[in-house]
Every structure is written in structure tokens, then in C-alpha cells.
Amino acid sequence: MKFGENLRNLRKAKKLSQEELAEKMKVSRQSVSKWETGEAYPEMNNLLELCKVFHCRINDLVNNTLLDLNSLDEDIRMNVVKLKKEQQNKVKALSRALALIAKIGRILCILCIPIVAASMVTLAFITSKLEIKNNEIVFNENEILSIVEMDNKIALNIKDSTLIELTKDSDIARLKLFLEHYSKIEILGYVETGLAFLILFLIVVSIMLKSLENLFHNIYQGDTPFTLENVGYIKKMAYLMIFVTVLPTLIGVLFELVLKIDLDVGFELFSLVEILFLFSIAYIFQYGYEIQLDSKGKMYGETI
């Protein structure tokens, strides 16, 4: 940082215009402007006068860094960088990493949407071929592919050969129950509805991750994290978190009522804690924004 930049930052910290500083210095506004742009350099008497105006030392004006914060008045001290270079690098690296992770997560969610959409088409074909024969789930009339329950295991058979053998799971029992009590059109309708809600879930999560990405991108690039824009991102994530937490529970309860089957749907208390945590962070950021309105405190900048 050169003299002109130091002078401009100190003047702005004192909330002085070029005209007001020129009046205090008893020089023209053009002189102050030339000092700040580097077109001219003040004489020694003017340098000493600048030190009186800003309650600083000459070194604070001419050096690349502010050497002695205690020599500055309170207003200016609140405006200079609060973090040392090592701390700045850590905060910036963490912010950049978190923004990248959020971006990757958002991209994965977006990529999953067409996969789920394709599954909706595939399942329509599979469901139309499923039926129960001899207490086995058969894929088609020729019984080429079947799901067979044996003791405590489930086998996926192709003709007479076992392709996959899995530990017995209640989902197969539910599938058999669906095939026995509901038409294929009804089953397909329920499955397609569930997958449609899954797509909606992925869309909302991708929007939430976009807000998280923007938040940490702003923290990485900005002078301070405490901005109204960042407060908005955190609150938006909290509202979307409510949606993605409540939606699966509501859909599960709805399916239980319609199908009259226990789907083991529940609401985890920890999800509520996560939401409250996000709202708390939002209010902390908002409070930070309000208390720095006058001081315009910064987090990044030259080392101190």
C-alpha cells in the first residue's frame, strides 16, 4: 500500500470528503486529489499536519503497512484490518474450500435430477411387468427374472441361476403387499409421485447449496462477512432447510394414510436443532452488520 492509498483509506475512515480534508489542511481539493492518486506528494509541513488530523505517525502514511495501531485514533483503528496475514489466509482458504464443496454438491444434485426422471420412465416399464406367482415376485410371464424369499435371505434369480443374494428386508414384503392389494396403475402412481417429490427435494437442496456457495464466496472476496446479502443467504438456507426437513415427513405420513402401511416415518429432533442453529447464525451476522455500520470494520487487507 502506497502513500496515496494510505491517505485515502485514512480519510474515508474519518468520513471526510476531499473538500473537508483540504479545508482542514488549508490546501485546495485538487492537491488532496493529487496526493491520493500519486500525482503529487505533500511537503513535510503538510505531512505533519496530516498526522495531526488523523492522529497517526508519518510511518503510518508512507509505509506499506500500518506499523503502530495504537498511534491511530479510535475511528481509524476500527477501520483497519483486524486479522494478521496467517489468519487471513486460513479464513480465505476455508471459505474458498466450503464454497467449492457447496458448488460440487449443487452440481451433483442437478445431475441426479435427470437420473431420477429417467428412473420414472424405467420403473413404469418394470412395474407393468411385475406380478406374483407361486408366492414369488416374477418380472414377466416367462419367469426369466424373479425375486425369491428363502429363509432369511432374498435372491434375485435369472431363470434358475441366482444373480444377487441379499439379507431379507421388509421392503420386499411391502412390495409383495402392494402387488397383492393394489393395481399396477395405482402402484405406478404412488412410485411416480414419490420420485416427483424426490426431484422437488433435489431442486430445493441445490438452491440451498447455491446460497451456501454464494455466502462463502462473499466471505472469501469481501472485506467483512457481516453484510445484509450474507444475512439473506443464511436466512434463505434456514427456510429451505425447514422445507427439506418437513417435506419427507409430510409425504411419508400422507403415503401411510393412503396405503394404510407403516413406512416408519418420523421427525428427528436434531433436524430442528440444525434449523435453529442456522437462524441463530443469521441473527449473529445481522447483529455484526449493525454494530459495524459506523466503524465499517474490515476482515481482510494489508497485514498488521
Secondary structure blueprint with pairings:
Blueprint: H1 3-13, H2 18-25, H3 29-37, H4 44-54, H5 58-62, H6 74-77, H7 85-129, E1 131-133, E2 136-138, E3 145-150, E4 153-158, E5 161-167, H8 170-181, H9 184-221, H10 228-259, H11 269-291
Antiparallel strand pairs: 1-2, 2-3, 3-4, 4-5
Helix pairs in contact: 1-3, 2-3, 7-9, 9-10, 10-11
What does this structure look like?
With 304 residues, the protein is α+β, with helices and mostly antiparallel strands. It is 65% helix and 8% strand. The chain has helices at 3-13, 18-25, 29-37, 44-54, 58-62, 74-77, 85-129, 170-181, 184-221, 228-259, 269-291, and strands at 131-133, 136-138, 145-150, 153-158, 161-167. The protein has a 5-stranded antiparallel sheet. A hairpin with a 2-residue loop joins strand 3 and strand 4. Helix 10 (228-259) packs antiparallel against helix 11 (269-291). The longest helix has 45 residues, at 85-129. It is rod-shaped, with a radius of gyration of 32 Å. It starts with a helix and ends in a 13-residue tail after the last helix. The mean pLDDT is 75.
